[in-house]
Amino acid sequence: MNIKFLEHLNIQGRELSTIKGWFYILFLLSSLVFTGLTHDGVTTGDYIFHAIGIPPWSIPELNQGIHYSAIFGIIMIILSGKLTINYFNKFLFVPLFKAIMIL
User: Fold this and answer.
1) How much is the pLDDT for 93?
2) What is the pTM of this model?
3) Is-contact 80 24, C-beta < 8 A?
4) Sign of torsion, CA 52 56 75 26?
5) Residue 43, CA distances (Å) to 8, 67, 95, 101 in order
């Protein structure tokens, strides 16, 4: 009885790790879209900041100064990239290399 229960937990753990992996990948893609330029030469993050009511620049009248949305986007890319790389190293590459070494 305990063995079946542990197998059930292991399957749910794999499903949870798969969900986390998809979340990390979607987070990385959304951060890339956030920092991407539109056809107007403005980042998507600028439009999002305007929609929220936050100016994307420290001097909004001249569109100069510190570009808040770009800084936020770079932080998002670094964080999501780190999470995605760690996920793939832990759940994809390590089991793959173990399987190759066994062969």
Assistant:
1) 66
2) 0.72
3) yes
4) positive
5) 45, 10, 39, 46
